[in-house]
Amino acid sequence: MFQQTSAPLTNSEAMKQMGFSDLVHNLDPIGWIVLVTLVIMSVASWYFIVANAIRNAMVRSRADKVIAGFWNTGSTQEAIRELEAQPKSEPFSKIALDAASAVAHHQQAAAGGNGLAQTLSRSEFIDRALRQAVARESLRLEGGLTLLATVGSSAPFVGLLGTVWGIYNALIGIAAAGNASMTAVAGPVGEALIMTAIGLFTAIPAVLAYNFFNRSNRLTYAQFDEFAHDLHDFFATGARVEGK
């Protein structure tokens, strides 16, 4: 019996062999490393995108309520109890509590004749506590932004590395087979180009999210500074300076 040989693929059939399934099926170890790296980068960036979106939304939604609640309470002790009831992730309450703690600590130091109270005035002690609190809460808001910036800037190049390596392997295979037809070229080259697309799909959301969160954080930082200045005036003088 004669063995029936398969008919050569047409150009249209060859173009259909450029899908993701063909890419995965034909990957070598280096190609797998590139693909897994891109998947990890994408998963990590989406985790921080969702986490930061939830956190920023919660901070922005509670900010006005916390600030207004502090100023509208009848006494400082009542305001402190209101602040202590806020979630641990709420930054404005933590800034105010640090200022109140600084006042209490300075008063105890002054009453006990501690040299710290003589070295720093009440205003300076509060100012230092507020600066540290604002810096700490600002740093917490930046969690994940470094990773988003890294993914946004490096993912296209990781995908390009996969593309270059895939095309290199494809050219070696074509040279070894001595066949440069569409059937031999379309599949390997198309599969390699998918790596670039995966890199772009990984990088674009990370870049957009990084810019969005940077803008959102700048608005929150401005609220931190405004609230901290009002707290300094209140705890240093005993009254809030109006008209700011």
Model description:
Helix content is 82%, strand content 0%. By secondary structure, it is mainly α. Helix 8 (145-177) packs antiparallel against helix 9 (182-237). It is rod-shaped. The termini are far apart. Residues 1-11 have low confidence and may be disordered.
SS-based class? mainly alpha
What distance separates the N and C termini?
97 Å
The description of the largest β-sheet is:
none
Low-confidence parts: 1-11
Which word captures the global form?
A: rod-shaped
Number of helical runs?
Answer: 9
Number of distinct beta strands: 0
Average of the residue pLDDT scores: 80
* Rg measurement, Å: 30 Å
Question: What does this entry show, briefly?
Answer:
The protein has 244 residues and is mainly α. It contains nine helices and no strands.
State the main characteristics.
244 residues; mainly alpha; 82% helix
